[in-house]
Fold this protein.
Amino acid sequence: MQSEIRKYLEKHGVRPSLQRLAVMEYLRTHRTHPTVDEIYEALSPQIPTLSRTTVYNTLNRLVEQGAILVIDIDKGNRRYDGFTEFHAHFLCDRCGVLEDIAVEDSHFVGQHTPPGAQIRDVQLLYKGVCAGCRQKESKNIA
Amino acid sequence: MQSEIRKYLEKHGVRPSLQRLAVMEYLRTHRTHPTVDEIYEALSPQIPTLSRTTVYNTLNRLVEQGAILVIDIDKGNRRYDGFTEFHAHFLCDRCGVLEDIAVEDSHFVGQHTPPGAQIRDVQLLYKGVCAGCRQKESKNIA
DNA sequence: TCTATTTTTGTAACGATTACAAAAATGTAA
DNA sequence: TTACATTTTTGTAATCGTTACAAAAATAGA
C-alpha cells in the first residue's frame, strides 16, 4: 500500500515526505472527496505535529502535479479527489454528500471544444437531493 | 426590454425593485458570467446609492428562485449566469474567460442519476487554454 | 560532519461572503 | 391623504477558508 502511494507520488514528481504520503494515502482510501479540515482532523492523531498549512500546501502541490483533482462546489470549502480518471459527481444540496458517478466519457472528453482552445479537464456535476434526504423530507411533511 | 425583465422576475416570484431589475437586466444583456464586483461596478453609475450587499442579496435571491445560475469555478469569485437553459461552459485557466458552449443535452440531463436521488441541475465545465492565450504563449516561447 | 535545499509549521494577513441593524421604500387599509 | 406594517436597501462589522511569510525542522549531497 504505502509503497504504491510512494511510487504514485514519485511518478507525479512529488517527493514522498511523511505528510505527503499520509495525505495521498488518505485520498486513495477515502473516496468521500474530503475537505482540507476533514483531512487535517483525520491525520492529526497519527501526525500530532501536523499543521493545517501543510495540508493546504500538500494538496496544492498534488493538484499542480496532476496527482489529484480539486472540486469547487457551491460556496465554502474546496474538496479533493484522489482519483483522476474521468468520472462525474453528484452533490446533494441538503447534506453535502458528494458521490462518484461512473460515466462513459466518449460523450464529453474531446467534444465541444471551442475553436483553437486546448482542453485539459472536463468536469460533470449533477446537483440535487439524495435518496436519504428525500426520505427525511417526506417524513417531515407527512 | 425592461418590461420583459419585469415579467421574468415576477414569473420567478421576485419583486421587481429598481435594483433587482438592473441586476437581472445586466445578466441578460452580458453573457460574460460576471462576478459580483463586475456587476456592482457596472451598475454603480446608473444607481449611485447601490450597495455591494444589495448585489449579493439580489443574486442570492435570484439563484434561490431559479432565475439565474451560479458557477463555482476554481478559487475566488463566484460567477453568475442569467440563462438557465442547459449549456456547457469553457473556462480558460490563463485569462479566466468563461464562455458558453452549446451542447446537446440528451447525453446529460436525466442520465446517470444515483438511485433515489432527484437531479435539479447539471453542470458541464471544460477547462483549458483559450485560443488567444495559446497564441500569446507560443509567441513568448519563440 | 558541514552546508545547501526542501519541507513543515504557526501566525498574521487577505479577501469574498454573510450577519446584522438601521434607514428607506413600498404596500395596505381606513 | 395618513398611519402602520412589511419589504428592501444600505453600510459596517464579523466570519471563515485560504494564502503569505518567516522561522524551525528535516533531508540530501559532498
Remarks:
- Chain B has a mean pLDDT of 91.
- The longest strand of chain B covers residues 118-129.
- DSSP finds five helices and five strands in chain B.
